[in-house]
Design goal:
88 residues, mainly alpha
């Protein structure tokens, strides 16, 4: 399974923000509106999606940190296991 990149999550968050801004401008300047209940559901969905993306981003950041620490520990072990050359 392919991992989601954090830049993809950032792009999704920006897309959701752009969607809200576009709807707000259309609503303000052109008068285009949805029904109140539909509008509330749509805005709640966008907000919950943004919160979900935030938590996924935190989870990926933690996983990346853990992977990096494991990689550094592995390199340190490999460096210790190499035989040292004696010059005598």
């Amino acid at each position: 399974m392919k991992r989601v990149k954090r830049t993809t999550l950032m792009g999704l968050t920006i897309g959701l923000a752009a969607l809200l801004l576009i709807y707000t401008f259309l609503r303000s300047f052109t008068g285009i509106r949805l029904e109140e209940s539909t509008e509330r559901i749509a805005i709640n969905c966008v907000i919950f999606a943004a919160i979900g993306i935030f938590f996924m981003n935190r989870q990926l950041a933690g996983q990346e940190k853990k992977d990096k620490e494991e990689e550094e520990a592995q390199k340190k072990l490999e460096a210790e296991d190499l035989p040292e050359d004696d010059e005598s």
